[in-house]
Design a protein that fits this description.
The chain is built from no helices and eleven strands. With 118 residues, the protein is mainly β. The strands form two sheets. Strands 2, 4, 5, 6, 9, 10 and 11 form a seven-stranded mixed β-sheet that branches. A four-stranded antiparallel β-sheet has the order 1-3-8-7, with no helix packed on it. Strand 5 and strand 6 form a beta hairpin.
Length: 118
């Protein structure tokens, strides 16, 4: 299983970024997928989850209305569109594979760093 997140960077408050996650080594369209973020030195924070067919999508309250998760099963790609970014959104963002019939992630990719600062 390999998950490689990309697209992070430095953005000003109120700006936007789109994160991508390339998945390989498993049947991507069989798994729900998460975005999880972590500020160095703090615990991980769950951000969003999407089901296999993009029908069931959930967000944490802290990002609801600003972030949009999506996936392209044909390309084995997961995305996170982040709008109206705030300094508190700065973190390492990880894509992760969900354990079937649970709400737990079993494989995490390498994170991509998002910094929100003026």
């Amino acid at each position: 299983v390999q998950l490689q997140a990309s697209g992070g960077g430095l953005v000003q408050p109120g700006g936007s970024l789109r994160l991508s996650c390339a998945a390989s080594g498993f049947t991507f369209n069989n798994y729900w997928m998460h975005w999880i973020r972590q500020v160095p030195g703090k615990g991980p924070e769950w951000v969003s989850i999407i089901d296999t067919g993009s029908s069931n999508i959930y967000y944490s309250e802290s990002v609801k209305g600003r972030f949009t998760i999506s996936r392209d099963n044909a390309k084995n790609m997961l995305y996170l569109q982040m709008n109206t970014l705030k300094p508190d959104d700065g973190a390492l963002y990880y894509c992760a594979r969900n354990v079937p019939y649970s709400w737990y992630a079993d494989y995490w990719g390498q994170g991509t760093l998002v910094t929100v600062s003026s």
